[in-house]
Amino acid sequence: MTIFLLLLILIVALLMLLKVYPIKIAFGISSYDLPNYNIAFSWLSPFIKGRIQKFDNENIITVYLFNRQILQKPLKKAVPKFKNNIERLKRIRPEYIGLHASYGTEDPSTTGIIYGAINAVSSYIDFDELHLEPDFLAEDSFFNMKGIIKLNLLKVIRNY
Q: Which InterPro entries does the protein's record reference (predicted)?
């Protein structure tokens, strides 16, 4: 009986933590390092942390529990279905979205068009922070993007 009660208390506590503390996802991508990227996630850091990285055409996930690696393996490649992914993204509804982007092209008018397009699209996405740094005097075309997304994991689980 006491084991059942302790298990029930542990499950309720875990559900409360899932509701209160969002999972933080940080990502970064750069034109200088394409096609590689880096996505880090954490929940109650250092309780659970992880990283998804792409190196040499292989996606690798690494998960840490109390800063000790417990998992590292390649991710299976899935064929994305664009329509389903858009619907999934609509249901997630992140608590926070922050994006910092710097970019530039050899032609200043193209950089201006990109700047206008990003501002037009950003009005449809509820960014909490959006920092755009267009470089109109760039000698070579480039882009760098970093961002943070915070998700309430209980809402994500409930919506799926």
A: DUF2953 (IPR021338)
How far from the centroid of its chain's Cα atoms is residue 123's Cα? 19
CB 59 within 8 A of CB 77: yes
pTM of the model: 0.78
Number of domains in the chain: 1
Residue 8 in 3-state DSSP?
Answer: helix
Residue 149 corresponds to which tokens in the numbers above?
């997304």
Tokens for 121?
Answer: 């699209």
* Token duo for residue 78: 């899935």
Per-residue pLDDT band at 86 (split at 50, 70, 90): low
Between these two residues, 143 and 44, which has the higher pLDDT value? 143
**pLDDT tens track for 91-125:** 777 889 899 999 999 999 999 999 999 888 888 77
DSSP letters, 18-82, are HHHS-EEEEEEEEGGGTT--EEEEEETTTTEEEEEEEETTEEEEEEEETTEEEEEEEPPP----H
